[in-house]
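Blinded run. Sample ID left blank on purpose so nobody reads anything into the name before looking at the predicted structure. Input follows.
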Amino acid sequence: MERDRVKEVIAQQPRLFYCSQCGTKLSYLHDGEQERPYCDNCQIYIYENPAVGVAAVLFNEEGHILLGRRKIGRKKGMWCIPCGYVDCHEDVHEAAVRELKEETNLDIEVESLLHVRSNFFPPAKHAVGIWFMARHVGGELRARDDLEEVGYFHLDHLPEMAFQGDLEVIEKIKAKGIL
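Blinded prediction complete.
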């Protein structure tokens, strides 16, 4: 159902207007599956792919999860597992390490894959979220970049969370006893 709503929003509001290869104004043609941007000059469909985001799940010695309070955007003031987008040509594991350092000043090692899901927030912006379990290896905790505050929280006493995906990850951790 969520995917259908996203398709509807995208169909109502085209987001690509010019070809990234030649700069020609795009038309929208049906490719047999759906309406897609098409460059008449290059004679190719332009595919809109989701952005990829990563998050590093980190626990302290007491089993409390690291969260950050967002300082910008629609979810300002709400809390999340520290996260960010993967840069072009960047490995997802390296992105998780970089993002956690940028936002919390902590150095980590990625240990394992924890969760993957599609995110549609806002509906026209499709992202794939990847959550990794991580281990702290250095650095002193402090809020940086997109976060105004960081702290560790008991899994049963969380602040107001920004993202459904983070809540799913936390429920998965609790249900499977992952720590």
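Unblinding after everyone has recorded impressions. The mean pLDDT is 90.
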